[in-house]
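Quick one: co-fold with guanosine-5'-diphosphate-alpha-D-mannose.
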Amino acid sequence: MGSSGKPRAVVTGITGQDGSYLAEFLLEKGYDVFGVVRRSSTEKFERIKHFQDRITLMHADLTDQGSMIDVITEARPREVYNLAAQSFVPTSWKQPMLTGQVTALGVTCVLEAIRVVDKSIRFYQASSSEMFGNAQETPQRESTPFYPRSPYGVAKVYGHWITVNYRESYGMFAVSGILFNHESPRRGLEFVTRKISLGVARIRLGLDTEVRLGNLDAKRDWGYAGDYVRAMWLMMQQETPEDYVVSSGETHSVREACEAAFSHVGLNWEDHVTVDPKFYRPAEVHLLLGDSAKARTRLKWTPEVSFRDLMGMMVDADIERLQRENQHGAV
Ligand code: NAP
Ligand code: GDD
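Sure, here it is.
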């Protein structure tokens, strides 16, 4: 609790997709929110600018131990949500060292800061279905063995186990949320759903004719980010720290995502999607499908936005955004 009497939360990765939704959610719940941002020559606050005046931003980096200790010391939160990561899978082959430093060791940096300052602070780790990779069973649940297929997935496995280890070594309330893919109009432009939704919007407005994609057969369990941040918070309110799978329980191919997005505005995806091997990965995760029975039963969590509604929402948002930019002469 801060002097205001409100619970305090630190969110790393607040400028990212999930950070922005989680911060909004926590503000609605009456929290004082402290967002960790890293120094940049230009500000990248697009996702948080509509509530920036209601939160406190603090400078730190997950690769700098002292800076994280300062954040935890100054904010003195009840809860820390570690969402920061190098999160784009293809980049993890191009920058495997950086990915390991931020996405793996960065987790230890935050846990160490908590251990040193106050072990009673609760910790959430943003773990990933990419840890299942070459999935050893379908659907994947908390007990499914990990078999990561990218340097990113390997780094997330480290992040998961170091979280479990700090819980077991120091009795800390540290939980790992194993979240399957979740998307939104705030998704980064390079991820496949957003690439498709922006492509559809540009084609619909006559700004483009095609979208170039890689493997159309890959299948993912896609949900809406706004639903998934609710699960993060619920995990942190339980009596005991445990790990949970969070997923929609449906799997769809990239091809189906194209079909849903193009048909939403009356277009045929086959007229506009070109397969470009440039976007194939050195090792692919072919099929993800999560079993979130534990989260649904214990946390009473249920997602509210369906796959087709999600793709439609993202296309509509991109069309609106492009039209707005056009009015201001940016297109
Ligand atoms: P995102 O949009 O890529 O956001 C990543 C955030 O991490 C950004 O705020 C970024 O800051 C920050 N960051 C990167 N390197 C950092 C560093 N060295 N120090 C401090 N901050 C740093 O990711 P997201 O989709 O919101 O995902 C949030 C978390 O959940 C990530 O850990 C991701 O791996 C994990 N996850 C995501 C999904 C999903 O489907 N979205 C599923 C499972 C797990 P800048 O703005 O400065 O770049
Ligand atoms: N990005 C991208 N671009 N992916 C493509 C493309 C393309 O042009 N064409 C096909 N795909 C396929 C990829 O090969 C992959 O199988 C699938 O679409 C999803 O790719 P992404 O949207 O980039 O997400 P991801 O599944 O690799 O990773 C996301 O979800 C993870 C949870 O499972 C990220 O958010 C990770 O940070 C997260 O942990």
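If it helps, The first strand starts at residue 8 and ends at 12.
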